[in-house]
Design goal:
GO terms for molecular function: tRNA binding. Keywords: Cytoplasm, Nucleus, tRNA processing. InterPro entries: A-sol_ELP1 (IPR056167), Beta-prop_ELP1_1st (IPR056164), Beta-prop_ELP1_2nd (IPR056165), Elp1 (IPR006849), HB_ELP1 (IPR056169), TPR_ELP1 (IPR056166), WD40/YVTN_repeat-like_dom_sf (IPR015943). By secondary structure, the chain is of the alpha+beta class. Among the domains are: 145 residues, YVTN repeat-like/Quinoprotein amine dehydrogenase (Methylamine Dehydrogenase, Chain H), CATH 2.130.10; 98 residues, no CATH class; 55 residues, no CATH class; 77 residues. Helix content is 34%, strand content 26%. The strands form 13 sheets. A 4-stranded antiparallel β-sheet has the order 1-2-3-4, with no helix packed on it. It has a 4-stranded antiparallel β-sheet with strand order 5-6-7-8, with no helix packed on it. Strands 9-10-11-12 form a 4-stranded antiparallel β-sheet, with no helix packed on it. A hairpin with a 2-residue loop joins strand 6 and strand 7. It is elongated. The termini are far apart. About 4% of the residues have low confidence.
Amino acid sequence: MWTNPYEMIGDIFGGVSSVAWSPDLELLVVVSTNGQLLLMRENFSTIIEQPVETESLGEKSAITVGWGKKETQFHGSEGKRAATVVTVQKKPISEFDDRKPNVIWRNDGQYFATNTVHNDVRTIRIWSRDGVLQYTAETIPELHGALAWWWGDENLIVSVDTSPKAERRIIFYETNGLRHGQFTLPENTLRVKEVCQGTLGVVRVLTVYCSKQVEGSNSQEDVLLLFTMNNYHWYLKQTLSFPEGVRAFLWDSRERLRVMAARFHSYRWSFQVDATGEGRVASIDAKQTLVTDFDKFVIPPPMAQRAITVNRHINSIVLLKSAILLQLDDGSLVVNEAEGNKPVTCNLPDVHRTSWSHLTRVSDELAVGVTCSKDIYKLHKIVISERKVIEAAILPKVPECLTIYKGNVFVKLKNEILSCNIYSHDSELSPSNMGHLESLQYTPQGIKVGFDSTERCLYYDEIVLCHKSTSFVIHEDTFILVTTNDNTLKCYSIFGNPKTPECCDTRNLEAGSLLVTSAPTDGRVILQMPRGNIETIYPRPLMLHAIQSHLMTERFDEAFRLMKVNRINMNLFYDYDPSSFDTKIEIIVRKLKNVNDLNLMIMDLQQEDVTQTMYAGYYSLVELPKAQKMKNVDKICDRIRETLAKVDEERFLLSIITCYAKKNTISDLEVALLTAKRFEVRFDEALKYLILLVDINRLMDVALGTYDFKIFLNVAQHSKKDPKEYLALLKELKSYKNENYRKVKTDMYLKRYDRALLHLAKCPDHFGECLELVIKERLFTKAHSLFPQGSQEANALWNAHGDYLLTKKRYKDAAIAYMQAKAYQNACQCFERAVDTDLCLAAAKLADLPAEPIAKRLILALTTGKKCLEASKIMERFSYPAEEICMTLISGSCWKAAFCWLLEVPDDRQEYIKAQLREHLLSSTEDLKENIATVAEKFSSSVARLKVVREEKAKRAAANCINFLDDTDLPMSEAGSVISGASRTCSSHTTRSGSVTTIQSNRQLRKANRKPKYILKQGSPFEDLAIVQECAQLVKNVPYLIEQVVSLLTGLQLLFLMDEAASLQSFFGSYFNTVKDKYILEVWPETPNGGVEVISDEELRIRPVLPVERFASAIFSERW
């Protein structure tokens, strides 16, 4: 049994009036009844003892030197008479003041404040942690004894006073003792006893404990008023009445208000905005309900679209379609209906006045709520139309929150969710893994979304969707919006596949921003900032979803309004459904109506599909019809223009011109000017508009190109150019009498040579100018079609064309051009340069030239170019000796043909020629064998080195855990070991040459293509790939070796050199089999299923295949 209930550790003379521990519990401040201030340590040892009342104002108080008199000061709107008004002294202290001192510490423990009475005047003093007086607050008559410290960025001291108008006011002081604002309590008869601060999440709550007289009675009742501040306005959010009186109250660390009255009460609130999901929002302010439809208006608080006032303070509200359900501070429920302009208030039966909570709307005629009586929680349904309350179920545990989904009430209990049918009252319990929820909602797809404000977790179907969340809103059936402690807004999509929501958009917010509601019509989201002001944003996914909904339902005017306001690309009109655009153009035109809107849409068209690029984040979640063909902006403009002309060409003249300007070709701009000219009344208007879309200099050229000088002069006048710049040109053009020649000069000035050629061809007297133009601008192809074949003009053109091709060394093309011009001698010379023997001899025959000298030059050219077989045919055609033909074939290694011609050689020269053939065959055989031996040695060394390199890479990979097949993991020891694709790309410049397009950089391009991808250098990180690349080239050369071997084998056998033939076949056969059966398998090994590829480059990974044709002679089959 405890026999020592306390321990005496000291005695304070006069007794204790007020005490307060510092927040860190290291210091204790005591104010005694005789006016002494004691500062003690945690072991109650006294640090300092001094009088509370002192004449000093504090170490840091401002000093006033008394400058200025009342008579000379400016008094504003009160006028000069205010200088002579005598101030009536107010009562120094309130009538009901208990004269007790009060002490409060600042939250950081650096200062504490005292509120004491001396000579019937209350004074607030601010002291440092060391007990040194710092400031003395302004002296205010009728200052009350309540004291609190409103912590935060402001760090204000809170107290109470009575104003000159007998109003009770909450007043604020800064730490330096200066006044910092005030607000009036709702009733003047309140006697404030105490003020303190609590927190509910991110909301700070000022709690005012006061008493008032009960209506119709002389008794007093205690009241707790809960205020919050937003946008510099103080809202009275809750009014708690305790007729039996309050003994004590406290805000605990779990954000609960504990009240000790006749019974123990515990309150926990979640401050939420009552929103209908359609943009309507309601907020409580004492006896007023502030309602704003954010779908139509964005009004910052404390202002509102409308305010509904009742006769008592409001504690909770439920928004209905045409009415509002209110819970008053006495527990009664009131339905406020708007009939006409005057609201009608109807009370529900008084028998149900009790502690209501969790009031929730079911429908416009039904709501539900929870009551608590003697620790029993009951779920009631409130039938608004019948003005009655019906008990629906008894809850087994304390409810955390509730929500409505498809006629069922879902109540979140501790670890369970109770489902109760609102009509049949059938209930069912199901387990839940979600924590203590502040809010529970269901998505339209039927998935639970819960918010735990304590742990900052947002649950989605029992799984944590987002940590560090601070608020959330479900936007229709498409998105969940979440604000986080990281000061971001996350947008989760729940359409398409609602089981796995994806975060499709994240944007930064101001610190402390909270969601209020979202508007379904345009995707706007309303946020409230920490200071209370309202901000509106348009998250891209929500806005795109609203636009998509409007487009799908053919509300193109609403879609356009959203696109225009939010700068959304107008290509969505086409890209959202390309297949149906043509059928909807007329509807779009009739919906938009405004010409300027149509112009904006047309000018925004572009080749890009915005659903796949800039808006891919949203449209990747939406199934769109696929376009059947590529997007063509020009065709779209043509289709829109045709529709506009069909609906009303004159009304949509500017839009039609916009279609032409969007295509922005010379021909379309000309048509635009001519179209504007057809409507003479609106020509100036159309011209001014066209100047805005097209560069004025270009438009002047286009106007001149219409050959209509009136149009040109109108454009020039609007260009604000000096007339001296164009009048001389007009005068010159008008001086030409021939209309076609005038057009020629116009086109030449505009450098439109194609058109100039067309008009010049119609001027026979100016063919010289025509030919000069064709040669200078290389318009041969177009010029040939303008003159009949065989005419003198056509022959001149073909001759000039041939001269031009000859300068470009296109000999064959030049020869053909000369043939068209019937210049056969020039054609013969060009065919000779092109070494085209048959055509050259044919042209020589047409030109009556001797054939023998030409044939001799052709034979020499073919022999020099190693085309001995073709040279032998010409020699045979012109009856050259067989001996000479045979020697020509021998020099070209044409063994088979040489053997055939050997038989035609005279007998006396046959042995000599045969000896020459044998000597060349043996020499070529030895050269080929040496070549094969060199290649074989190179192949063998490459394969051996490749094996070593691969082993080293495998060891390095095992030691350093690097994937040796992924070359990007390896350090680049040699910068030049790899030739990138960019360095191998060679740009080519093409130039026009009549009907032939020549490439100036053919040689450089071929050289770049021959350049290997990997450079072989020992020790480089890509050495293995370079070796594989070299081996692939060696395998690629095998067919060429086969061709040489087959040719030599035939020649050797025909000359009875069997041993040499057998030796060559055996030598090459050994190399061929080694490559086929060994080297290829080692360089390109087989990769098992699921195994790692040895060669990292996919291009080199393909195993080459050797030709399957037989190259060996069957004569030596027994030997080989």
